[in-house]
Amino acid sequence: MPGNDNSVTRRKLLQTTAFTAAAAASGVLAAPSVLRAQSGAVKIGFLQPVSGALAYSGQQGRLGASIAVDEINAAGGIKEVGKIEPMLGDAQSTPDGGNAEVEKMNSAGVCAIVGGYASGICLATTQTAARYDLPYVVDVGVTDAIVTRGLKNTFRFGPGFGVIAKTALANLIAINEKAGKPAKTVMIVHEDSAFGSGLAKLLNEQLPPQGFEVLETIPHPTPTRDFNNVVLKIKAANPDIVIPANYYNEYVLLARTMQQQRVRPKAAIYSILGGAASSYKFVKEFPEAAQHIMDCNHWFDPRNPKAQALKKKVEAQGQFFTYEVYLNYSATLLLADAIERAKSSDRAKIIEALGNSTFAGHVMPYGPTKFVNGQNQGAAPANTQVIDGDIQVVLPEAFASAKPVYPMPRT
Q1: 227 near 368, Cβ under 8 Å?
Q2: Is the pLDDT of residue 1 over 80?
Q3: At 372, is the secondary structure helix, strand, or coil?
Q4: What pTM does this model have?
Q5: pLDDT tens per residue, range 290-340
Q6: Spatial CB neighbours of 344, under 8 Å, sequence gap ≥ 6
Q7: CA–CA separation, 394 and 406 (whole Å)
Q8: How far is CA 287 from the centre of its chain?
Q9: Measured between alpha carbons, how far is residue 57 from residues 60, 265, 328 in Å?
Q10: What percent of the chain has pLDDT over 70?
Q11: Are 50 and 3 in contact (CB under 8 A)?
Q12: DSSP letters for 144-177
């Protein structure tokens, strides 16, 4: 905090983010600096893709982690262990970039890592960390293979796409039935890495038994700069529902291209883990393209005063309150809680403490924290919809702030 030389403030963390982004833009990306552990401190690695195609999401994730570090250190640090010294890593939006950072962090003696963001990065980095028995808390990565490989070091606080897809499908069926079943046909547009391809496969298996015909499944790479041909295919097929599964930039471009070409499905744009569908940034910058889009995704608990306070803190900095922020915030607090209970920075003790976690100090709409094979069984997504320039929770009803607008107006 101000006046304390032993702390690393949020300002310093964000300055590092800005430096990394600037270096990437200039084509010269230096390795992240290794912060030397000081007396009474615990070194934790924070790994995000803060340059490359996923840079915005990575920077948002780093923001959430930095706020958590700031709050922990302001309260005196982790009891019986010390203040947190973060070591920042840039995965450069690739698995190889992430692996290189894990190697550096291990050599620097971090006691654990938080982050990864993308499924492909997390699959690689958790495996690398496992070679060193290095505890790894996944912030976002939703591919279920991350936690089904038997890696004892890996813990995912949020839900995977198996749970999210199941919830999304159940909610879509409920919404559709309540409206008189106006939707029967679907098109899926997905990015082609582990996240999007896995989700598309799951949807192709589960939608037909529920009475939905999948007209076409269209993959695309990340990055993609032009969706005109994809949107022409959507226009020709005229599906009742379009299901996008993409990262932020591609999602925005797809939605904007659909809006510009006046292509609107009959019932809904119904996202599952839509990279922008539940984003205040998207809603503010492109309100017409965002209007009435639905999403089943990570979301904060709007009833939680701690969540509202965090939202205000983020927005006071001129930033958007995105899922990367509050998932990394919560994941960092989860890890700190485990280190406190372990009363040590010993990796094996931290892994044991994470496995026994009952952490409740987060901002998510989750049930009790309980890890089974590295997956938090209490994690759950929420359904949102963009209505009149704001993002409303429409399901579950226990904390819904609005009723779904379905079918969506086509004009």
Answers
A1: no
A2: no
A3: strand
A4: 0.86
A5: 999 999 999 999 899 999 999 999 999 999 999 999 999 999 999 999 999
A6: 81, 350
A7: 11
A8: 22
A9: 5, 28, 11
A10: 90
A11: no
A12: GGGTSS--TTEEE-S--HHHHHHHHHHHHHHHHH
Take residue 297 and report the two structure tokens written for it: 């995704």
Q: Is 114 left (phi over 0), alpha (psi -120 to 50) or beta?
A: beta
Rounded Cα distance, 292 and 408, in Å: 6
407: preceding bond cis by omega (within 30 degrees): yes
CA distance 355 to 375: 9
Tokens 């996944």 belong to which residue?
Answer: 138
Q: How far apart are CA 391 and CA 384, in angstroms?
A: 6
CA 172 to chain CA centroid, Å, is: 21
Residue type, 112: A
Q: Give the number of other CB atoms < 10 A from CB of residue 365.
A: 22
Q: 275 CB contacts (<8 Å, ≥6 apart)?
A: 57, 246, 247, 248, 249, 250, 251, 252
Is the preceding omega at residue 368 within 30 degrees of 0, hence cis? Answer: no
Cα 275 to Cα 19, 21, 50, distances in angstroms = 25, 21, 16
| Residue pLDDT, tens place only, 224-282 | 999 999 999 999 999 999 999 999 999 999 999 999 999 999 999 999 999 899 999 99
Using the structure block, give the residue that is written with the tokens 């939202």.
311
* 49's tokens: 């893709």
